[in-house]
Write a sequence for this structure.
């Protein structure tokens, strides 16, 4: 079988990418778009905005760190929501194996966001791998082209989207060291979301000072994990 990435249709009609080397899709086969909207947009960004003690729109942007930037679908949907709500967005992705612009262009994700956002993202994507770029007037994006454990930053973020390949395919992304490395970048009061939930993950996140919640999962999964970092 070829090792080339393949575009694959999921159950809600949206596309994902299949990585034959990993043996796994970038998104749920039950629906890439609905997974991204449910887990990251609604259970992450929307939840944070509703629960935040700070009222938006504000001068300070909402900051998001994503582990596993991939196609940028979570970024695009988040940026689109922020533009609609008049909120500034400061987004950092971590991606060890960045996709080419051409591959991202084949996803068809332009149909889910404004034409202007898509055009800006398309124009700036390669530069975002080298440093911070502006996407429109209200959004900044940078993608750290490295392995999660090699990512270092003095910053903490309001929200973390943890979107690694499943634990059965990439267990090293879900062990205590990887989770601790990630959670150090979450602000007190910040929200961590991921599409999966396991006993080990719950214990690891709790031990790092977070309040853990089993939230309803995206189609195909009963539950997902959401955690809020407590003030110490
Ligand atoms: C489930 S996919 C993420 C899908 C992505 N959020 C999207 O919407 O397209 C997992 C991603 O993690 C990346 N990845 C794999 N190992 C990594 C590592 N050690 N550090 C950072 N990213 C990694 C993969 O290349 C892939 O893009």
């Amino acid at each position: 079988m070829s090792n080339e990435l393949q575009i694959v249709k999921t159950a809600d009609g949206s596309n994902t990418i299949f990585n034959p080397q990993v043996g796994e899709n970038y998104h749920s086969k039950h629906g890439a778009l609905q997974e991204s909207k449910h887990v990251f947009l609604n259970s992450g960004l929307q939840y944070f905005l509703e629960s935040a003690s700070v009222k938006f729109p504000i001068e300070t942007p909402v900051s998001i760190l994503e582990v596993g930037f991939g196609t940028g679908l979570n970024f695009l949907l988040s940026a689109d929501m922020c533009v609609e709500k008049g909120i500034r967005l400061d987004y950092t992705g971590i991606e060890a194996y960045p996709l080419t612009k051409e591959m991202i262009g084949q996803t068809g994700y332009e149909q889910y966001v404004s034409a202007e956002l898509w055009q800006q993202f398309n124009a700036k994507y390669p530069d975002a791998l080298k440093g911070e770029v502006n996407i429109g007037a209200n959004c900044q994006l940078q993608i750290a082209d490295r392995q999660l454990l090699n990512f270092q930053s003095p910053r903490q973020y309001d929200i973390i989207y943890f979107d690694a390949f499943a634990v059965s395919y990439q267990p090293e992304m879900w062990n205590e060291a990887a989770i601790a490395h990630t959670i150090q970048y979450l602000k007190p009061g910040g929200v961590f979301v991921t599409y999966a939930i396991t006993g080990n993950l719950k214990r690891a996140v709790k031990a790092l000072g977070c309040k853990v919640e089993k939230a309803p999962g995206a189609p195909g999964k009963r539950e997902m994990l959401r955690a809020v970092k407590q003030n110490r």
User: Anything to note?
Assistant: The radius of gyration is 16 Å. The first helix runs from residue 32 to 51. The pocket of S-adenosylmethionine is lined by residues 26, 68-71, 73-74, 94-97, 147-148, 163-165 (CB under 6 Å).
